[in-house]
Specification:
Pfam families: NAD_binding_9
Number of helices: 17
Number of strands: 19
Organism: Streptomyces salyersiae
Protein name: FAD/NAD(P)-binding protein
InterPro entries: FAD/NAD-bd_sf (IPR036188), HpyO/CreE_NAD-binding (IPR038732), L-asp_N-monooxygenase_NS-form (IPR052189)
Mean pLDDT: 93
């Protein structure tokens, strides 16, 4: 008698839930009437996983508005499977208030749900409740015969031949789970320190200092940072925002009429980075009018042509021109159609000439200069990426005022619909990211692209930047500038930081915090699961990502051959997608990937259910 086919999903957070949802959506067509056991393996409760777990500070919030977060497909998603619509986060909160849905949450989160507006930025604990509900709906939608089993623990290894069942080993258990297929949806991963971080940690140990390496801020031991003492912070993205919140409001400080009132328990944060400025504010107005017809210059045809080229793709040479052309199209389409008084030609004439002009060419620059008189209305991606290039200050004191002005101007622009081409570029970024996931491995520069995307499109809510301004005015946060450097001073036994923005001047401190996520690494990952996969022949990139087939997420061996029984989805793979969650009606490349993986898995498992094979 044949055993029931088995699928093991390692990681029961949002991506694992997405795979289960797509299994449920596609099973009636591809797996009707058959039995299947799905095993979910995760040390955290299903739905939220580690990052979106319930037990974290209520001060930590999403950087997306409630109406901009969904876990459900719609007709904009390019997928072979059926659309199974469902509520976005705000609509779900309305359903909870109306009694149409239930929320597994404590009283504080329930109170937040009952007051949630569409343009508010929910707490991560509220998002955890939504994700738990979505997970329950996905499981409930599975047809009869498909059963889900939960296993609370860390998967440490996957073994087994390409032709046979896989063994999934779970920490603390003596016998493995047997699987016909394994899907890894393990999210962001911890990493062992690189050479620089090891040197900094050793220096801190020898001198009795504090060094907090790259980590998830919610998991860092911030109690080691003493009140009133200077702390050097390297990193100005979302990890810094979390750090800022936990070390200020989290220590009893509060805001009153735009002014920060310290508790006296805060350290003084000296923050800098490569760019020297925080991520751009989330855009604070809704889209109105005609959307740019995307993709226009970087779509499936261009991707197909790229994939036919021999040899590896170079991001700057092969991809960036297409990316820049697409973002420019989105920007100018909006400018010409919504703010035509700031242009000198008709959109149809401009579009025709723009389409044939080479990216970065003098012809394109001339076309734009003649049609868009004000340089402030032109898209300059290089200037956006490095806003402090060439900027110099004689002292850190003058830099504070200048950077507060920069942040204030960014807040004003990102909340003013007169600058709605910025929102069109945001839509262009989403479209571009969706195409890049089809390309697969784009090498080391792809990491730069991911950072550039996050800087423009995945920044903090406006209120967080207004808090940053208040903290700067209060002297709790001090800006270091761009091109930040960190060094060790053996004579003084202190960390020292400087920047290209204030040349020749430095700040010293007994504490250094790396405010960023660990970089993925094939050789430094702390995931015993991934290390075992690499030892078993899985391929990694120079940038540290697990190589997967962009078509369906199958893990690639070192010779480029897809493994028939192993899939992987998420930010640690070469098919990483943009952001943590999908905005409704934006195509959702993560949804497309989930659907492709689920359909490939069900097709394989259909064969497994039709043939006898041993259970081990």
């Amino acid at each position: 008698m044949s055993a029931v086919p088995t699928l093991v999903v390692i990681g029961a957070g949002p991506r694992g839930t997405g795979v289960v949802e797509r299994i449920a959506a596609n099973a009636p067509e591809l797996y009707a009437g058959r039995r299947l056991d799905i095993h979910l393996v995760d040390p955290h409760p299903p739905g939220g996983g580690r990052i979106w777990r319930q037990d974290q500070s209520p001060l930590l919030r999403m950087n997306s508005m409630a109406e901009d977060v969904t876990m459900f497909t719609d007709d904009t998603v390019e997928q072979d499977g059926p659309v199974r619509p469902g509520p976005d986060l705000h609509t779900w909160a309305q359903d909870v208030r109306a009694g149409r849905a239930t929320a597994d949450a404590d009283p504080a989160v329930l109170a937040e749900i009952h007051g949630l507006g569409p343009a508010e930025f929910p707490s991560r604990r509220l998002q955890s409740a939504y994700l738990r509900w979505v997970h329950e709906q996905a499981v409930a939608a599975l047809p009869p015969g498909i059963t889900v089993h939960e296993h609370r623990g860390h998967a440490t290894r996957v073994s087994g031949s390409r032709a046979g069942r896989q063994q999934v080993w779970i920490q603390g258990r003596t016998a493995p789970l047997l699987a016909d297929l394994v899907v890894l949806t393990i999210g962001h991963l911890d990493a062992e320190p690189d050479a620089e971080q090891r040197q900094l940690a050793d220096f801190a140990d020898r001198h009795g200092l504090v060094h907090l390496p790259p980590d998830f801020t919610a998991d860092s031991d911030l109690s080691a940072l003493p009140a009133g003492e200077p702390v050097i912070v390297r990193g100005f993205g979302l990890a810094f925002v979390d750090l800022m919140v936990l070390l200020t409001e989290g220590r009893g400080g509060r805001y009153e009429n735009g002014t920060y009132l310290p508790s006296g328990r805060e350290p003084v944060l000296h923050v800098g980075s490569r760019r020297g400025v925080p991520y751009h504010s989330k855009i604070g107005y809704p889209w109105q009018g005609e959307r740019p017809p995307l993709p226009a210059h970087f779509g499936s045809g261009e991707v197909a042509a790229l994939l036919e080229r021999p040899g590896p793709l170079d991001f700057r040479r092969d991809l960036w021109p297409l990316v820049a052309k697409e973002l420019g199209f989105a920007h100018y389409h909006r400018l010409f159609t919504a703010h035509q008084e700031r242009t000198t030609t008709a959109w149809t004439d401009f579009e025709e000439k723009y389409a044939v002009a080479e990216p970065g060419s003098p012809e394109l620059e001339t076309l734009i200069a003649e049609a868009v008189p004000d340089p402030a209305d032109r898209l300059d991606l290089e200037a956006l990426d490095r806003p402090l290039d060439g900027v110099r200050h004689a002292s850190y004191d003058t830099l504070q005022t200048a950077l507060r002005d920069h942040i204030t101007a960014d807040l004003a622009r990102r909340h003013d619909p007169r600058h709605s081409p910025d929102l069109a570029v945001f839509l262009g970024l989403l479209s571009v990211y969706g195409q890049l996931t089809r390309v697969g491995d784009i090498g080391g520069p792809g990491a730069w692209w991911h950072g550039f995307f996050s800087y423009l499109a995945s920044g903090p809510p406006g209120p967080r930047l207004r808090s940053l301004l208040a903290l700067s005015e209060a002297g709790v946060v001090r800006f270091l500038g761009a091109g930040m450097t960190v060094a060790t001073d053996e004579d003084q036994g202190l960390f020292r930081a400087g920047s290209a923005t204030v040349p020749g001047q430095y700040v010293t401190a007994r504490a250094l915090v790396e405010a960023r996520l660990p970089d993925p690494s094939t050789d430094r990952t702390r995931s015993t699961l991934l290390r075992a996969l690499y030892e078993d022949g899985a391929a990694g990139t120079d940038g540290g990502l697990l190589r997967v087939d962009p078509a369906d997420g199958r893990v690639l061996d070192r010779d480029g051959t897809p493994h028939p029984r192993r899939f992987a989805l998420g930010p640690y793979t070469t098919a990483r997608s943009a952001g943590a969650f999908t905005r409704p009606r934006t195509g959702g490349p993560a949804f497309r990937q989930n659907d492709a993986t689920a359909r490939a898995a069900l097709a394989f498992l259909t064969g497994a259910s039709c043939r006898d094979r041993p259970t081990a």
